Amino acid sequence: MYFGGQYNHLITKVLKYMGVQVKILTTSEEEVSGLDGIVISGGPQSIVDGGIEHAVRLVRSFDGPILGICLGHQIINYAFGGGVRRAVNPEYGMTEVKIIDNDTILTGFPHIVNVWESHTDEVYQPPPDFKVLAISQESTIQAVANNKDSIFGVQFHPEVKHTQMGQLVFENFIKVCTR
Fold this sequence. Notes:
The protein is α/β, with parallel strands linked by helices and 179 residues long. It contains four helices and seven strands; from the N terminus they run H-E-H-E-H-E-E-E-E-E-H.
């Protein structure tokens, strides 16, 4: 799902390279049924500023695996009752992330990984039934998972080459989509 993010084309390219059939949806799409999974991209919008209500409805209505990246991570957390706010310390560029739990989308990751960040809002509390998988030095929640509903979010950008092992996030998500 496209939110105007600068890296959307990279998400598409990575997934196509991995053999995934990709359909780019905009936030104005009304129908998301029949898809094997959804990846929600980053973008310049802010949960704090509003204007993402349609995306929240789409996320809540989709009955399949979801991976949120950056803004997508924030939308997922907000949609299901988590806390999102303007970041106390916005993160840009290379950031060290501590993996707390190698569950599902972070399977195969080392304890510490360097990732690419670009965000001014942050998730500070996960929704009910979601567990935190990773945090940054600023204690920003970097990854969450709800395995029961196959909903995942990462604050960092796994699609860029600067993120160590970023493609593994997509590989792990594809496994969830093909179960």
